[in-house]
Write a structure and sequence with these properties.
It contains 4 helices and no strands. It has about 110 residues and is mainly alpha-helical.
Length: about 110
């Protein structure tokens, strides 16, 4: 009896070396810097304006999501199918956040 498990069956597992501790420290440092930028942007809201603040924070959120998912969850090394799942979820999340921001007039008039 031939059992099939779907589209991932034909995917051949490629061996790769996982990043070492130095790479994880580098990624953590980048995430820390991006978080510091987010905090600084919050305090610059009066200078930037609310629309620029929200747009900047959304952009940084997407970048940080990509870094965390790509490196810490090892998605960078997995089957491309999993990227579609995470990008789809991210797209839905960003769409909901933008819709709520528009609903509550975060961007102003």
């Amino acid at each position: 009896m031939d059992e099939t498990y779907g589209p991932l069956d034909s995917y051949e597992v490629e061996e790769h070396t996982h990043p070492g501790p130095r790479m994880y420290i580098t990624i953590a440092t980048i995430l820390t810097i991006l978080t510091a930028i987010e905090v600084a942007l919050y305090y610059l809201e009066d200078t930037l304006g609310r629309t620029a603040l929200v747009a900047s924070l959304l952009a940084l959120m997407v970048v940080k999501f990509g870094i965390v998912v790509g490196w810490y969850m090892h998605l960078k090394f997995d089957h491309p199918y999993f990227r579609y799942i995470f990008v789809g979820g991210l797209t839905i999340a960003v769409s909901v956040v933008v819709a709520l921001a528009l609903l509550f007039e975060v961007f102003g008039h």
